[in-house]
Prior knowledge:
Layout: H1 3-11, E1 17-21, H2 25-34, E2 41-45, H3 48-54, E3 61-66, H4 74-80, E4 90-94, H5 99-107, E5 112-115, H6 120-152, H7 156-165, H8 171-178, H9 182-195, H10 201-211
Parallel strand pairs: 1-2, 1-3, 3-4, 4-5
Helix pairs in contact: 1-6, 7-9, 8-9
Amino acid sequence: xxxxxxxxxxxxxxxxxxxxxxxxxxxxxxxxxxxxxxxxxxxxxxxxxxxxxxxxxxxxxxxxxxxxxxxxxxxxxxxxxxxxxxxxxxxxxxxxxxxxxxxxxxxxxxxxxxxxxxxxxxxxxxxxxxxxxxxxxxxxxxxxxxxxxxxxxxxxxxxxxxxxxxxxxxxxxxxxxxxxxxxxxxxxxxxxxxxxxxxxxxxxxxxxxxxxxxxxx
Length: 217
């Protein structure tokens, strides 16, 4: 099983939570009833600040966010969320939307932009897409962390060998560069493949690229 697949399995152990931020109590209540009916956890907030104060954004899920809110607006929060350390995908909604606002929202990375009133199915579809995006991000982050941990387990010499061979150098060239015998380089190369759990040399090259340790040819 690949690192990405293992990470994907890990991210499915927690139920996703939809964080609904809207100062309209009737809409919060409606989504608080509708989304659990399709198996989703829901938490509701009257403002962005209330959501931030709750500190409950670490788990899987997404944010359903009204554009017009007291205090920090939905669009302002969307533009600032990375700096706030929040990476949950966002579905925006508004009763006062226009084309320019929706374009701005989508360019800033919103999964969807729903005008009020919306159909229940449209919201379910948007939330499902957002949760899937969050799942993919978490799986990729976990796989990348796994690769970094494996690289850290290499000895300094093994890291040197990995850097040089993934740059396309032959074993004898690596041996010359490092002042080693070719047989010793082959031994290090085999150890690198094993410790990095690389299924092929191409797999090892992709790992080196992901780590940013591949030397220029």
